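User: structure tokens for this one?
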Amino acid sequence: MIQPRTLQFLKNLKKNNQKAWFDANRTVYEVAKADFTSFVQTVIDGLGKKDKTIQHLSAKDCLFRINRDVRFSKDKSPYKTNFGASINVGGKKAMNTAGYYVHLEPGGTFIGGGIYAPNATELRKIRQEIDYYFTAFKKIVTAKKFAAVYGDLDRTKNNVLSRVPKGYEPDNAAAEYLKLKNYVALAPITAAELNSKEIVKKVIACLETLQPLVYFINEAVKE
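Assistant:
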């Protein structure tokens, strides 16, 4: 389980997002980071028993830096107020491959996976694969376990085109999936679940449910 002091650090950081405060609390940060790192490593070890493609990863390969890139942002807060880890075959630096994600944030913790912000070439490959093998794709995203954990792929307004991409007919059976810009599924984790001794098992089980989607996407982008 995630230690309460780790979440408390993130809460305090949100209230005191300044370098001076962070420097004064660096030791607390290191303890919190170590706790999250241990949690992610346990998840990798468990998930890797089923998904051999991520067995080689260590948590340090997957954790994102807490420092924000503020060069092009109006918000100049120097630090993220969450811990995040991309459990991807290429680690956190992987581009245009699907994987799993763990996001720890007080009041906003979630897990999920898929592919986010693929470039135009990879996005075209994924849509083509969905069009060609829609029966197989639909079986993945409508499976009982998948639906129970994630409901569906992310369909927030900013993730859906107003019409099908060029080259596809509006009445295409896969139209509602071809309109997506990112192919991700997300599931919230409550504070009570975070405090449970069963949280690691739950996270691993939920991410295992995503494996067929991750494999489908990665097969598409390899073509």
